[in-house]
Design brief:
Elements: H1 11-51, E1 53-57, E2 72-76, E3 90-94, H2 108-118, E4 127-135, E5 139-142, E6 149-151, E7 154-155, E8 176-179, E9 184-188, E10 210-211, E11 215-224, E12 230-231
GO biological process, one term: signal peptide processing
GO molecular function: serine-type endopeptidase activity; signal peptidase activity
Region (Disordered): 1-24
């Protein structure tokens, strides 16, 4: 019986199939490596933002001109550390329960604000930025004959304010004397005419003192817009 010879598979088809099979493991390895790198980067970024440093969008004018509305600041979350808050530091803190009412822990607005903060497209309504004027053990008084605040009996040189302080243009229109208990701080905005700060809480429980436990961190730099990037380290009394 005559047997027809088998038709050989074209060499090009055989080589192409073999090449495709050899590419699959490489593509899988590449995908696994890329996924692992992305996951590690996300974990590192998350850890840094939770424990070390974060970016916050400022949606208030109370620190103008030091920090303007809409600017983003780098916040050192390792602050205040064992030494506690110090006069002159610009701090970002949670004002819920002092400057804003308490909200439910499952508030949808809270969740949406946190997501917006994480992606840099919004500001959390309970987050405030102010300057520490006095901390635990300090006495802050407004004002002396030259219109200046005094800290523990010494006049404060506040050259970061929008206008020079004089007897006619005092550092605060509201006179006060505040003795700051341990673990708390007296805070004020640099834009004294348009700042909700410790002065607004005089007579309230706590007497205007903000617990240092509410501090999120210290604002160290303006980072956005890039054209206005600068350090905040020099803006101290």
């Amino acid at each position: 019986m005559h047997k027809s010879p088998e038709t050989p598979e074209p060499a090009s088809t055989s080589r192409g199939s073999s090449h495709a099979r050899s590419r699959r493991p490489r593509l899988r390895r590449w995908g696994l490596v890329t996924g692992a790198v992305v996951l590690v980067a996300i974990l590192i970024s998350t850890g840094v933002r939770i424990f070390a440093a974060d970016l916050y969008t400022i949606s208030q004018d109370s620190m103008d001109p030091t920090i303007a509305d809409g600017q983003r600041v780098l916040v050192d979350k390792r602050y205040p550390g064992p030494a506690g808050a110090e006069a002159g530091d610009v701090v970002v803190f949670d004002g819920e329960g002092s400057f804003t009412p308490y909200r439910g822990g499952t508030s949808l607005n809270r969740v949406l604000e946190q997501i917006g903060h994480w992606f840099g497209i919004g500001a959390r309504s309970e987050v405030f930025v102010k300057r520490v004027i006095g901390s635990g053990g300090d006495t802050v008084v407004c004002c002396d004959d030259a219109g200046r605040l005094s800290l523990n009996g010494e006049p404060m040189d506040e050259d970061y304010l929008p206008e020079p302080v004089t007897a006619e243009n005092p550092a605060s229109d509201l006179e006060f004397e505040a003795e700051v208990p341990a673990g708390r701080m007296w805070v004020m905005g640099d834009n004294r005419q348009d700042s909700q700060d410790s002065r607004d809480l005089l007579g309230a429980p706590g007497g205007g003192m903000i617990s240092q436990d509410r501090i999120i961190g210290r604002a160290t730099d303006v980072v956005w817009p890039w054209s206005e990037n600068r350090s905040l380290e020099g803006a101290r009394p």
